[in-house]
Amino acid sequence: MPKDTGIGAATVRREDVRFLTGTGEYTDDIQLAKQTYAVFARSTVAHGTIKSIDTSAAEAMPGVLAVFTGEDFVEVGGNPAGWLINSRDGEPMKEPKRPVLAHGKVRHVGDAYAAVIAETAQQARDAVEAIEADIEELDAIVDMNAALSGSNFVHDEIGTNQCFDWGWIEDNREATDNAIKNAHHVTTLELVNNRLVPNAMEPRASIGSYKASTGEYTLHTTSQNPHLTRLLISAFVLGIPENMLTVIAPDVGGGFGSKIYHYGEEALVLAAAKKIGRPVKWTADRTESFLTDAHGRDHVTKIELALDKDGKFLAFRTDTKANVGAYLSNFSTATPTFLHGTLMAGNYTVPLVYVNVKAVFTNTAPVDAYRGAGRPEATYSIERVIDKAARELGMDPIELRRKNFVKPDQYPFASAAGLEYDAGNYDALMDKMEEVADVAGFEARRKESEAKGLLRGFGVNAYIEACGIAPSNLVGVLGSRVGLYDAATVRVNATGNLSVMVGAHSHGQGHETAFPQVVAEMLGIDPGVIDIVHGDTSKIPFGMGTYGSRSLAVCGSAVVRATEKIINKAKKIAGHMLEASEHDITLADGVFSVSGTDKSVTFGEVALKAYIPHEYPLEDIEPGLEETAFYDPANFTYPSGAYACEVEVDPETGKVTVDRMTAVDDFGNVINPMIVTGQVHGGLAQGIGQALVENTTYDENGQLLSASYMDYTMPRADDMPMFAVDHSQGTPCTHNPLGVKGCGEAGAIGSPPTVVNAVIDALQSGGKDVKHIDMPVSPARVWEAMQ
Amino acid sequence: MYNFDVEKPGTIAEAATAMRVEDAQALGGGQTLIPTLKQRLAGPSKLVSLKGVAEMQGISKDGNTLRIGGATIHAAVAAEGSYSALAALAAHIGDPAVRNRGTIGGSLANNDPAACYPAAALASGATIVTNTREIAADDYFQGMFDTALDEGEIITAVSFPIPQAANYQKFVQPASRFALVGVFVAKYTDGVRVAVTGASNEGVFRWTEAETALSANFSATALDGLSVSPDNMITDLHGSATYRAHLVKVMTGRAVTAAS
Asked: How many domains does chain A contain in total?
């Protein structure tokens, strides 16, 4: 029976009232007194030497208050990579400095080399056009193979375009090679995981302000993690003491990863605010978003799967080149390595995995984590090569997967890629998928399609991912330069309502609804009296923010721990009020009772007592009712799923239509099924978008050809079928208090290989010998593959 | 944007006068022009909005000719029943916001090589009426973004002879949803006309071989054995010249079948 409140209830998202009525407050909505505007001068060439920049004409333009170039930031630090990767030979990765403004060279189209601050944005834009920059164009480095073999370098000071050459698990390399050499059958597939532009609805924006009387800075910015941004600016870039910098991320209109990172524009507006003594606002236009938001994916991979004569997997071996773009964005080195290689055993008992990843600098926008971050790349490689193997061996793709699944009695399961899966049931997910997707009815639907002259294909996928990042001790060993705990403060106010301050940031995830459901369930009170505070470093405890499907699993666990502390203290207060031992106090439905008696006080009465501590045992109990907890997970969480897709392909035009899409996910326990369903829908849309339409394209000169919505295809509602989403097969996470796993990225991880598998199935059914088409599987590519 | 003046004349004569200023630019629905201005890719001295010119608004039917005012929005054309293939074309331009701003005159004056209206005008043998003259569609389209319009000349109306049968098939470019290839087929008593948009580096063009074949036999099978040369077709990130050439034939066949 569905609940109507608390954990498990499909509570309507309270934040949607302001989002849907246009009363949200985004960074660009904020107008500070005496605010000025920044506009950036950006490189129009992908690679060039800055010979000179003459700003004198710009400085003389009407309304101009200051002009900055890279020279102004030579003394400050670079924007760092958050994860140290060591190459196979033990050498640390190459970390060229990423300056606030380009200095010496420009390294991608859109690389900012100067900024104008003016009274109006229009004046600043005019002045940018008056900057005379002499930039000598150099040959652009775009292709990763050329980057690795040539002598033309994105960063001359490191003398190579290879950031690192990483092996995982290096000790298994030889055994994996031997397994592949001696296997009954080896299936090989070369594929591209296409580069994606994040395209958050709200472009990036920042306002820097500075109070000279106290030396305090404030940054309003579009961030998924204000504390992390503050730490990066304070400790690495500008050196502002953390206690002198407040970072506020108000309503944020989508991030998908691209707003995890600190960007130079944030440092610029802070430095400029100090220099001119007035707030400085910058808001990206859509072209800047395309050119400078950290892009996602961009892997070129060769994968081999070795099987025995019965179809048991013996080894996966991959060779991947990962494009990191022109500079290392904050998590760009973790994404293709520990968020990718460690998932390369998939849901399978395969005994050997070896992953080689070479990260490559190119004259393109930086590439970093984007919804799924490494796990979509792993899942796509694994699930495409399994499908190809099934075809080569004449086996049913579902049965081949089942034959190799980790079974329910094998948990905890040590995967060949180095993770310990705590819980799951992949056969149950597959069973449910077959039911929900009506696999039995496929052949009849195929005949209906044939009658219309269309080729129908069925695609299947099983995925596992690692969420809830992350156990700090583990990731510390693996090279992370940060811890990945989170934090929450639960403040019970005197009148019995609550403010819960959380380190996670909500920019579409529905925290303002879901977190109160947890607290309300624990306290037995109305969630309506609980308010979530997030996004302001001056108000919230130090948490690491929202990405990697971590908010509920990590920050939600901190909320649970803090609420437990509240309950413990409240029981002491109630015990005093009821003249009973705290150990005899029980809490149910918001009422504290003495076991076995009819004596009770309400939660509200206890709250009032805590703040008006008359007749209160001050020697034993502090007044007030406010608790903070930090939570560092013991392990990753491991959502998994079984997906199915049916497509119709028009053999005359190559057009692919997704007719049915089924997502059966194990997210563990579900707090709000409506929000979870919505998250899956969004993930599916992005995954189908990647599979079919999203087409980031740089030409050989490093110009982004798909730099606007006239050429970059976003998936739209009419590209989507009605989704069938099921999360009834949850196996609770064993190591966090809510038993939750994370649902934000699953749809984007599970769907791309499902769609492509379906397209290949459709073409094969039509007698076309097409084994693979790279994403996006556009009509033109499908048609060309059929010729 | 750069700064510019705006003038909103009430008559064609006033509009023509307003256009005499150096670097003046006529503004229809602004669906191409405004984004261009926002990106500072154009810097007109003055925009002459044609929205207030009453005599350029609306649709009228005179015998077998449909006359559409140059400032008529796509949504109005989509709602007009007497030339259903044209209405269906208009109903699939852009999205509701575009269709309630963009105008037929604006589209034809811009002559985007992937726009829909040029295919309808050329296939219908329409007449482009301006403030100074009437131009046959066959003489009007002069290549990508190029037309027979003189400096300052304004499209005041477009006259379409209504065919016996017609259909427009648009295979969309997925991002812009302009035509990757769009084919308009119109059958008249004196023959069939086939116009193709989206495909050619020269902009909209007539596929005369198909016209001959279809005039003899208005059936998709009449196209068997015909092929379209990929020479001078567009190659871009959405499809090659060869693919576009292939689509021209496929879409022509579908249009004929749908019109039959």
From this structure: 1
Which one-letter DSSP state was computed for residue A690? Answer: H
For residue A626, the domain's CATH number is 3.30.365.10
Domain range B54-161, CATH architecture: 2-Layer Sandwich (3.30)
Domain boundaries, chain B: 5-49, 54-161, 165-259
Phi-psi region of A154 (alpha: psi -120 to 50; beta: other; left: phi over 0): alpha
A705·B237 Cβ contact <8 A: yes
Query: pLDDT tens per residue, chain B (260 residues)?
Result: 999 999 999 999 999 999 999 999 999 999 999 999 999 999 999 999 999 999 999 999 999 999 999 999 999 999 999 999 999 999 999 999 999 999 999 999 999 999 999 999 999 999 999 999 999 999 999 999 999 999 999 999 999 999 999 999 999 999 999 999 999 999 999 999 999 999 999 999 999 999 999 999 999 999 999 999 999 999 999 999 999 999 999 999 999 999 98
Strands (E), A475-574: 486-492, 498-502, 530-533
Superfamily of domain B165-259: CO dehydrogenase flavoprotein, C-terminal domain (3.30.390.50)
- Domain-embedded: residue A94: no
**Minimum CA–CA partner of B175 in chain A:** A713
Range of the domain at A620: 485-631
Tell if the CB–CB gap between A693 and B174 is shorter than 8 Å: yes
**What would you measure as the largest C-alpha separation in chain A, in angstroms?**
87
Q: Are A709 and B176 in contact (CB under 8 A)?
A: yes
Distance CA A586, CA A571 (A): 8
Q: For strands A105-106 and A48-54, give the pairing.
A: antiparallel
Whether A783 and B243 lie within 8 Å, measured CB to CB: yes
CATH number of the domain located at residue range(s) B5-49 in this protein = 3.30.43.10
- The structure's pTM equals 0.97
**SS3 state at A235:** helix
A728 close contact with B: CB closer than 8 A? no
Structure ipTM over 0.90, yes or no: yes
